[in-house]
Amino acid sequence: MDFKGRSFVDLSDFSRDELRAMLDKAHELKRKQKNGEPHEILKGKSLAMIFMKSSTRTRVSFEVGMTQLGGHALYLQPSGTQLGRGETIADTAMVLSRYCDVIMARVFGHDEVTGLAEHATVPVINGLSDYNHPCQIMADMMTIEEHKGKLEGFKIAYVGDSNNVSNSIMQGCTIMRMDVTIGSPKGYTPTEDIIKKADVLSKTHNTTVEVVNDPTEAVKGADVIYTDTFFSMGQEKSKEKEDALMPFQVNRSLVGKANKDVIVMHCLPAHRDEELTSDIMDDSKYSVVFDQAENRLHAQKGIMALIV
Ligand code: CP
Ligand code: NVA
Predict the structure, then answer these.
(1) Ligand 1 first shell, C-beta below 6 A
(2) Domains of the chain: residue spans and CATH
């Protein structure tokens, strides 16, 4: 299977077999890393990393990942580059393509990352936009496989604010044949457009995708419970939204309503005792949040190994 040169912007751009190949490569590279086996398959390659928003995991895991693959990563922020002075996304894409072999970008509007991908002559990787977060969900699916042995047939319940992370769950987990339930209060559910796209994917892959407004109903029969911040980067905080989302907090009572061997996930950073209680986040019987964080490194190495 050859998809060298393709950008990684949205999980629905890839087939089930292609996502499978990237996950397999990620598991293989993780094994090699743990066993101390050299795997400098991107020796001499350079990765440009554009960050329009803050990051800990994405920045460090991409930079360390590229180093482990034998390449080099450059950290670029608008304030330190001409992007901050109005050079266009298109021109930036064309210039960076003359120096680098791959570009990763964390942006506000999704059109900024699609614009980069359109104008770059090297692959572009989406490191989070307001619309989606595909690298995160690759790491998450890798983590579910490690803890549960497979993805197919398991139910994932995302509870809380519908956002970039839940949008990518609705795509990636559906393509990999998990059943997906989103539990969000009215006013904070996925957009019609996202639901329509997920419906099409679920028909193709013979799975279910549903949106409910009750947290207990959402986690019933769940093998995985996932949550994320009430307020994503760039969103204004409001008491109204917090009040609407508090009943969707992932706490011991909610976890007790899912399957007995449920695992609890969060992309991090977490706002302890808001969307997720510390009690659950620190309980190793359920919480796999730091495995998810680690797997960002391995999953992204898998992606880069196949597209660069
Ligand atoms: N989960 C995630 O993308 O974390 P950062 O914002 O720290 O990169
Ligand atoms: N939904 C969060 C994810 C952070 C990794 C945000 O966009 O801020």
Answers:
(1) 55-58, 128, 136, 267-269
(2) 11-133+294-307 (3.40.50.1370), 136-290 (3.40.50.1370)
